[in-house]
Amino acid sequence: MTKEELMKKAIELSKENVANGGGPFGAVIATKEGEIIATGVNRVTSSNDPTAHAEVNAIRAAAARLGTFNLAGNVIYTSCEPCPMCLGAIYWARLDKIYYGNTKEDAKHIGFDDSFIYDELALDAADRKLPSESLLSNEAIAAFQKWTATENKIEY
Ligand SMILES: [Zn+2]
Fold first, then answer.
1. Over the range 46-74, which residues count as b (16 or more CB within 10 Å of their CB) and which as e?
2. Is the pLDDT of residue 106 over 90?
3. 142 secondary structure, DSSP code
4. What does the similarity note say (predicted)?
5. Which of 36, 54, 113, 119 is deepest in the core (most CB within 10 A)?
6. Could you tell me the residue range of the domain that residue 36 belongs to?
7. How far is the centre of ligand 1, averaged over its atoms, from the C-alpha of 138 (Å)?
8. Ligand 1 geometric centre to CA of 83 (Å)
9. Is 133 exposed, middle or buried (0-12, 13-18, 19+ CB in 10 A)?
10. Segment 22-76, tens digit of pLDDT
């Protein structure tokens, strides 16, 4: 499939998901040659899962299908520019490229505003609206020491 056909698929998924009572977001993960590996739609409300964005669901399905956590060599087509969570997930999945339809500004106009998260990320932790505090770091470090000392670990 061409990149336009793959984006049309992501858009079609986003429209179908609205018809099914979900959010207007769909995603497709495909090889660079244009073969679909997996798709995903937004299931935040239907599954009561705030992380069930289309891109995350597509990544989970693609990784399960390929039997690997590393999706390098593949690309994602998403009906909307990824939110910070999905962008992070796309980096972790090692996908090679993002194609998106709607922009995050388009999403903001219909009530899906993730720009505040992008704004928060640019701030020092102490200046964010979400407080975070280091606690028991002297105990937490034990797992890192154990990891470092482990010889046959699967690095990612
Ligand atoms: Zn997202």
1. eeeeeebbbbbbbbbbbbeeeeeeebeeb
2. yes
3. H
4. Belongs to the cytidine and deoxycytidylate deaminase family.
5. 54
6. 3-113
7. 33
8. 4
9. exposed
10. 999 999 999 999 999 999 999 999 999 999 999 999 999 999 999 999 999 999 9
Query: Which structure tokens are listed for 73?
Result: 């060599």
Residue in the block written with tokens 């505040």:
116
27 and 54 Cβ atoms separated by less than 8 Å: yes
- Could you tell me if residue 34 is left (phi over 0), alpha (psi between -120 and 50 degrees) or otherwise beta? left
Structural domains in the chain (count) = 1
If phi > 0 it is left, if psi is from -120 to 50 it is alpha, else beta; for residue 94 that is left
| Residue 105 among the catalytic residues | no
- Residue 12, domain CATH: 3.40.140.10
Strands 97-102 and 74-80: parallel
Ligand 1 center to 135 CA (angstroms): 29
At residue 40, what is the residue type?
G
